[in-house]
Amino acid sequence: MLRLAASSLCVYCQRLQISLPHSNRFHISAGRCAALGTGDSKAENKCTVDCLCNLSVDIRKIRKLKGWVLFEDTTYVNEIAGVLKEMGADRMTIASILEQCPEALLCTPAEVNTQKELWRSVCPNEKELVKIIEKFPYSFFTVSHHANQKANIEYFQGLNMNKRTLSKLMASSPQNFSNPAEKNKEMISTLQEMYLKLGGLEANMKIWLHKLLSQNPFILMKPPGTVKDNMMFLQKRGFTDAELLALLSKLRGFIIEPSPISMEKSLAYAKEMLQCSDDQELKEIVLKCPALLYYSVPVLAERSKGLLNEGITIDQIKETPTVLELTTQIVQYRIKKLSASRYNIKQGSLEPLNGTKKEFEVSYGKIHLKKERPLFNPVAPLKVDE
Predict the structure, then answer these.
(1) Do 306 and 346 contact (CB within 8 A), yes or no?
(2) What is the pTM of this model?
(3) What are phi and psi of 161, to 5 degrees?
(4) Domains of the chain: which residue ranges?
(5) How far apart are CA 188 and CA 185, in angstroms?
(6) 60-86 confidence digits (pLDDT tens)
(7) To which H or E segment does residue 34 belong?
(8) DSSP secondary structure, 131-185, as one string
(9) Distance (Å) of CA 159 to CA 122, 152, 153, 204, 303
């Protein structure tokens, strides 16, 4: 009798039908997956596996990533797929989400619907929400801290944070929203206090804070004392309030990453490596490249060595210290590409090496176009002696 019931359930789960010969429409039958009760405690839940296969999910990826999920007695494959479909996700998107976050199968329909309503309050539309879930599935399917998530959303909305910024913040750093709202309030208050103390204008504080959080949301996970200790260390090194405000604003809130001890070591190494005449010269270089403060000595040593091996001089590095933000591999690739366009990096500026991949491609394109440009204007009239 038990075996017959189990068999019927498994057949029911297999009713999930997908019809995609000419369109992206597909049909999902509801029904929770349950273990077959074969007596083998180590066997995978066949119903779960069958339902996932019907959704074109790559079972091998799940076995490799979180194989234990397939052994759970109860899963909600069809229900989760159904909720995602209602939100506008197509077949391939659903499969991708479940492959990335197998634990989603363990969330009850009630939990997922509650999450959906919560995220709707911060997402411009469901299309954007589906994109977020595909990119950050764990952020959406973290359902155990709903009360904290709701309280944090209300707090950030009170800071006049727009939906797009808030949804990105929730997606990229779900831990911040799982923590009690009071923890985030304490850090935000510290940052606001520091901003005003260093001479920032209250009228600009909201924009400054939103930009800082969108660049580096993990700043909220650090103790507030970290910011204060690091700022005090830099004040003792001779940085003015205006310079500290600039440093606090640059490079994704770098000020939370290092400690006074690690900064002391990095600055000492940078001063010797760059052959700075005094602390003032070193400070000017740091203001150009704040990354010098939080890169460790081994990282700085490796990157400076890589630049010198390419024939680049210390004076060139001092003039454009931001090249130290690039890995040795990236530097080698970019120098090779620039050399192919007959740009001599040893004699020219290092500025074309700088920037993101997109920024480099723009610089390279200009150099390449300039080298390929003919020496005369082919459409200009020629002067001919009469």
Answers:
(1) no
(2) 0.73
(3) -80, 130
(4) 44-142
(5) 5
(6) 999 999 999 999 999 999 999 999 999
(7) strand 33-34
(8) HHHHH-HHHHT--TTHHHHHHHHHHHHHTT--HHHHHHHHHH-HHHHHS-HHHHH
(9) 14, 11, 10, 13, 41
